[in-house]
Amino acid sequence: MGKRRLWKAYFFLMVALTVSGYIFPFLVSAEPSGQEFEDVALIPLYVAQLVGLFGFAYWRVIGTRRIWQWIFAASVLETAWMLYGFATTDMPPVELGSFFMTGVIATIVTLVALQMWALFSYAFRAPDLWTEAT
Fold first, then answer.
1. What is the pLDDT of residue 132?
2. pLDDT over 70 percentage in the chain
3. Angle between helices 98-124 and 2-27 (to 10 degrees)
4. Which burial class, exposed, middle or buried, applies to 82 when counting CB atoms under 10 A from its CB (0-12, 13-18, 19+)?
5. What's the mean pLDDT in 100-128?
6. Which distant-in-sequence residues (6+ apart) come within 8 Å of 26 by Cβ?
């Protein structure tokens, strides 16, 4: 029971981070980065990831197992693209400090790894859940 509580808390954390990630740029005036279309195009995937995380955290069947396998594959590709883009861009400003950037990277990698594990488990490792649904 405690395990599901942690996943539920993680789900709400990810919802808050996703929503704030789309609202925050409207509150801060910044110059266009050229990635606005990419951000908007990824909204359906991010919503699907949150729905899958909800299904895993609350142990509910949503859709079919095959759909979640495809969403997991798309999530892995999007994560690889994000990490590639992060690795090939210019380094952040020096005034942020390497310790701060290391902490940010460690936090992001941890959050994404947990999300990938939850989506993988929901799509591939929850036979009891999916047999109950059929």
1. 76
2. 84
3. 130
4. middle
5. 89
6. none
Q: Which amino acid, 85?
A: G
**Cα(69)–Cα(39) distance, integer angstroms:** 23
Which has the minimum average pLDDT: 48-52, 89-93, 116-120? 89-93
Residues 6+ apart with CB under 8 A from 118: 7, 10, 52, 53, 56, 57
**Rounded distance, CA 57 to CA 66, Å?**
19
Statement: residue 2 has pLDDT above 70: no
Q: Report the number of distinct structural domains present in the chain.
A: 1
- pLDDT for 32 equals 65
pTM: 0.84
Residue 34 Ramachandran class (φ > 0 left, ψ -120 to 50 alpha, else beta): left
Structural domain range at position 11: 2-133
| Cβ contacts of 79 within 8 Å, gap of 6 or more | 112, 116
Interior CA angle at 94 toward 17 and 19, to 5°? Answer: 10
